[in-house]
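User: I'm writing a short report section on ligand binding and want a predicted complex to refer to. Could you take this sequence and alpha-D-glucopyranose and write out the structure as tokens? A short remark afterwards would be nice.
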Amino acid sequence: MRVLLGGMSLGEKVGQLNLLAGAMDVTGMRDSGDLEGKVLSGECGAVFNVYTAGATRALQELALRSRQGIPLIFGYDVIHGHRTIFPHPLGLSCSWNLGLIERCARAAAVEAAADGLHWVFSPMVDISHDPRWGRVAEGAGEDPWLGSKIAVAMVRGYQGEDLADPAAVVACVKHFALYGAPLGGRDYHTVDMSRRAMEETYFPPYRAAIDAGARTVMTSFNEIDGVPASGNRWLLTELLRGNWGFTGWIVTDYTAVSEMKCHGTAGTDGDAARQAIEAGVDMDMVSEAFAGELPELVKSGAVDEALIDAAVMRVLETKWDLGLFADPFARCDEAKAAAVMLSGQTRQLAREAAREAMVLLKNDNSLLPLSKDLKVALIGPLGESRRDMLGCWIAAGDEAHAVAPLEGIRAVLGERGQVSFAPGCEVNDANAEWLGQAIEAANQADLVILTLGESWQMSGEAASRTDIRLPMCQRDLARQILETGKPCVLVTLSGRPLDLSWEDSAFGAILHAWALGTEGGHALAEVLFGDAAPVGKLTMGFPRSVGQLPMTYREKPTGRPFDPASAYTSKYLDSPNTPLFPFGHGLTYGEFHCSAVSIDAAEMSAGGVIQVSLVITNIGKVAATESLQLYLRDLVASVSRPVKELRGFQRVTLAPGEARTVAFAITDADLAFPGRDLLPVVEPGEFEAMIGVSSAVFQSVRFTRLDAAV
Ligand code: GLC
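Assistant: Sure. The structure tokens for the complex follow:
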């Protein structure tokens, strides 16, 4: 590689750091003109938004004809599947099933690689406490501990054992950093955060992904302490490369280098390019500020060429490890593509994932599962929609292959099924005629399944909302349908947690179905009619109103914890503090009893292990699955600690009457936190261990930690 570098002109070197967008998808504000010309002249080292064996082969051939003949790397936003679409990441995270999540990432990699791709812009591991921010759909929710485990599973799934395997793709951890905490939940907005919050809450998943071997990192659009991430040397060089030991390459987000001019921290593209390369950025996505400015900056002595050489080496090394120099066309095999895309096995996996992503929010009087013998009216604007089932960021996914709720219900009910459908309204607009038809359909049926929620455009990038209730027309539709007096189940689809306070007061059963992907309709129908039971648990709480946001179950205690008997305690005048549906919540078809929590010792020493356990019994009539969660609290510490933090979970499936002891081992790692100097520490003192079925329903026990550890 060094020899190759030695033979490259400055322009060719900078070309390797230039990532350009093709025209097969549009994911940002500006496209890259004359892509072919720039590839042929060696001014471009990487391309995204171009896929298929044929299209990537054609561009690759041009790259090989450039003077150095260095192969291109092809990237794409494969966020939750490439052609077979899995539930969006927030939905899939609600499975809490790390093996399943890894298998989905693997399957996405197999399809992506067969379509000529080497690099996926995933996982997005931004923690967020604010569902106003539309991009919560792309992450794993509010919790850093679970978020870290999911980040690792995804990196493993994408990259596999060996990047040279033609079915492996390079992962890209994004958006570094803190992108999930924009002020007011408004996308691209300023972030203002303490170092402590970064260490305790926001950094862990990025770090976990990097420790798992993720080869690339994407910078975020936001500033950090006044300096945009893409020009932030502290963030990229001192922390990421220095402290965390990251050796891969750093790419900016879309036009983030030139956006430093809008941030007001760079006056010109040249200024922005210099700041970015000096901060530690290796690759410029679409700005073309590196390509346009760095050669002059080096010639004038304003930028050290050694920085550029180091960046080029990082890019070339990964290209080498991908096997691109050995066979640049290894991932351009049409026959293989035809064989792997949307295979029966991958669709089966998508169905499994969709089943596990759904969260049963409430189910009074066991309204669900539904009988297959009744006359059903499916009502709501999303009932027949395939596209909305796929959600935001669908890569090369095509709604033609997706299954809408109505199709799924018809398939599950088969010949004997009696299903009618009426949209009732549009997603955001009322329609008087449709409303009348929907009421009529409800009147003709024995029961109603209302499918309401967000269209796919209402979450994802640049899709923040200040009101996260269902659109007014849908709430009106729901009211009118409830007035028919027919039993009615609510199915909600969305990319984000919603404010379902009114729906909670009006409906006995609510199943939250996110955007479930290609096989969504099938999985939804299976759960509605009892062919499968819901097992999902929320990874992000549902607030009672936007007024509570941002919020998290991991909140810090205040000096005035809420006390209903005292006015001067931390509360709202018009709402409880708690979420409507908390982190970790999710019901199933079944009933369990949990014993008190027991502990195998009252005290724990450094390096020791303490076991907490309880006995869970299936007291229902059918086999059922429950997920138990372990939370810890450090009661007195040198810095305030969250009121509870997730530290473990286990899923158990029990036959009726069956009981099982579920034990969690607590070790030093579970008790550690960033001390006053922000370095990890375990402090002696009392701890509380809680085991529950959600972050709000649990039993607890205390133990004493005898000594400190660092
Ligand atoms: C964006 C996104 C990022 C994505 C990139 C490329 O604007 O913020 O997540 O990977 O563009 O499409």
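A remark for your report: Residues 27-28, 77, 121, 174, 253-254, 461 surround alpha-D-glucopyranose (CB under 6 Å). DSSP finds 23 helices and 27 strands in the chain.
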